[in-house]
Amino acid sequence: MRSERYLPYLLLLPSIVFLAFFFAMPLAEAFWLALRAGEAGWSLENFRRMASDLYFGDAARNTLLLTAVVVPIQVVLALAMALLLGGVRQGRDVLLYIWSIPLGISDLAAGIVWLSIFTERGYLNSLLHALGLIDTPRLWLSYENPLGLFVSVAVAEVWRATAIVLVILVAGLQLIPKEYAEAAEVFGATAWQRFRRVTLPLLKPSLQTALILRTVLAFEVFAVVLTLTGRNLPVLAGEAYNWYAAYQVPGVAAAYAVLILGLSLAATWMYLRLVQVKPEVTTS
User: Which of 51, 71, 217, 254 could form a disulfide with 34 if both were Cys (CB 3.0 to 4.6 A apart)?
Assistant: First the structure.
């Protein structure tokens, strides 16, 4: 009996050790590095250097803009794809498998794939030239074309990470009993009314999870941007890398990391407030 009493704690121990080594300790070290300034001791000097950095303003703006543009597109697209899958009777698993392929591709590999499309001699220019739409190759990834850089990264991110949202929403739709929609249809509800009054409210827990996860990952976008644009489209995670690897100033790099953490926590709090889930939905 006594051994059974401690069994739950023993089962939780591997997870606690994993979280302590790979999350708690790096997090504490990041705060330590960000808030220490050599012999001056505790200080906000690293945050001051980060804020006065030449690339900081552009990096913050680009990161927030990418998140604001990419995440809503991905949620709407994934929701449409998930609803479409729900109506497919044959070949559903094959379609879900094909749509989930980007999940198995690393960020860097996805960036290389889209680099081969958007580069000067890439597939996009070849296609447009073959169709007679352009005479000379367009420089989509030139530093003189900031809109082209932003759109290229946004398209690559939508392709790469929509599958994450899709998988979450597909799992959420499968948990909704079909009897609810069938009952609404019996009472004369249209397809739009069934989606708005039945499906969408019951899908809120999954939507909340997808929004939080995807937004946090969007704040950390790095490899795709680095591959496609180098430093011509600075983002916060990229600047953290540059300050750590190129400038070898880990304190400022840690300040960038703490800023990304703060943005992630703020976004999570916002979604928990805006997309509130009623208890009866979570327990149904």
Answer: 254
